[in-house]
Design a protein that fits this description.
Layout: H1 2-7, H2 13-21, H3 39-47, H4 61-64, E1 71-78, E2 86-92, E3 98-103, H5 108-119, E4 129-132, H6 141-148, E5 151-154, H7 164-176, H8 188-199, H9 211-219
Parallel strand pairs: 1-4, 4-5
Antiparallel strand pairs: 1-2, 2-3
Helix pairs in contact: 5-6
Length: 223
Amino acid sequence: MQKDIGYYMGKDAIYDWAYRGNPDLHKYLTRKHKGKIPRSAFKKGQRELIPNRTPIELRPEAANLRVEFGHFEADTIFSCHGSLSALLVIVDRLTRHTKIRKLTRKTSFQTSSQIIFALSEYNLTQLHSITYDNGCENTKHEIVNEKLQTESYFCNPYHSWEKGMVEHVNELIRRWFPKGTNFDRITRKKIQEVEDWVNNRPMQVLEYKTPAQKRFEELGVAL
């Protein structure tokens, strides 16, 4: 026994020894389960939920270099614990122009429907790609592509910085809706107020133009 315990010395040594060589001992442990489920099993399952997932490495250079309007990043912001609502945030990579939509439930159906609705004001020739993370709310991305004639690309798992533009905008939105905010109680009028603030905020990266001004330069479309 001493040899076995010594072999498994390290973090959770006693647990490892019980799990691997003495499975009947699990009932005497503080955590009374029969074994550990590797985290990789959960991660793999999450990744496999999204059909026909195209990795971000294949995204066109026009999107990567921000030289063309119509390449978007999409993300969702969680409500407080216990609430099913969320905010959908869509940002154009070139102009940083942002759209914010409320989701009463963070489902793939609502997410895809709201993306289609939010971007439907544009001519289809102005829409090119949308970059997502690997959340299960993005599983219906192909419906978005079919309706808007876009292509979808996905960040590598747990690499949220690969869609850094929308992550930055999320931080701005959190100034208005800090963590713990219940989005069930947020009105569309208030969301529009925040969206207008984001789009009319001068940005150094845009040579101190606002996203609204930059979008007008590119498309001739006012806010």
